[in-house]
């Protein structure tokens, strides 16, 4: 199992960030995820594997000045 924004979800050993996002609704805002405290940006979603029991936060890109 993994935890995504506080919700428990099933996990598999080949799961990438892109795979996870494809199973969720309304993730178009998500340009960065935090996996166990480490930030991963969208260019690496296809290649970043999610470890079992990961805690994941979906984060929007925020710009400001």
Task: Outline the structure in words.
The chain contains one helix and five strands. With 65 residues, it is mainly β. A five-stranded mixed sheet has the order 2-1-5-3-4, with no helix packed on it. β3 (30-35) and β4 form a beta hairpin. The longest helix is centred in the first third of the chain and has 7 residues, at 17-23. The N and C termini lie far apart (39 Å). 8% of the residues are buried. The mean pLDDT is 93.
At a glance:
This protein has 65 residues and is mainly beta. Helix content is 11%, strand content 34%. It has a 5-stranded mixed beta sheet with strand order 2-1-5-3-4, with no helix packed on it.
Write the layout of secondary structure elements.
Elements lengths: L1 E3 L2 E3 L7 H7 L6 E6 L2 E4 L13 E6 L5
Parallel strand pairs: 1-5
Antiparallel strand pairs: 1-2, 3-4, 3-5
List keywords for this structure.
single chain; 65 residues; mainly beta; five-stranded mixed sheet; 5 strands; globular
